[in-house]
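Entry:
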Amino acid sequence: MRKNKILALCLSALMVAGLAGCGGSSSTASSTASSASSAAGSTASSAAAEAPDGDGDPTTLTVAMECAYAPYNWTQTTDENGAVQIRDSSDYAYGYDVMMAKKIADALGQKVQIVKLDWDSLVPAVMSGDVDCVIAGQSITSERAEQVDFSDPYYYASIVTLTKKDSAYASATSVADLDGAVCTSQLGTIWYDNCLPQIPNADILPAQETAPAMLVALESGACDVVVTDRPTAQAALVAYPDFTLLDFGGGDGDFQVSDEDINIGISMKKGNTALKDAINEALSTMTTDDYNTMMDEAISVQPLSE
């Protein structure tokens, strides 16, 4: 347990610059990608031609992400498991978002280039044309949709709560049971902006800049609970075995969120309809079960699981 904690804290330090917020086997993934390639073939060439590309190469899909938001994306030192080298770096990126980027690029007949950016730089990079798209666990909010176009959802992320197993809140079965909790979450997320204020009499601490920093705050005792999405929470349980996950079931006793809060999409420059259509064609070949299975695979190989 102590080894996991040390690994987690080390990874958290490395990730501070970042943020937040299917088929199962490799043969199934290849089959899915192949199907996506056929389905998207009619729009792939026009998408490649229209898409703004960071290095000017129409054969490359340039994708931005934090590379610091496991299990959606993270940084590692090798190409293990099919990781992709980060632009202008000797490091590699992997995770659910990289898996998805590779599937979409394959469907478009392109290769993937990963660009590592902090959270606040993702949307501006799309708007400026430095990257073709962002695949980084972004919620499809109306505010973001004013600046960029979004694909159909590529994941549906339910909201959950993390606390310690010995916490006074460990037996909570509703948001109301978190009454008076000291809490925090990640900067710029619906977890912090929308969910924490729903806790009665909450003592809301300043937002944490990254997901790892949020988890360290809980582990250190700085707060009683953190609110996040299920993939982030499931990944945290691997690194912090003294945490427990609270799922309030989505009813009246749960955090009240809209579809735009939990639907995760791929953003691209406004008006790039060819790329949007091609991405949606690729996504249409996958099911929710595919997404969940692929996320489980990402969680199983994330750095914190080692």
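The radius of gyration is 19 Å.
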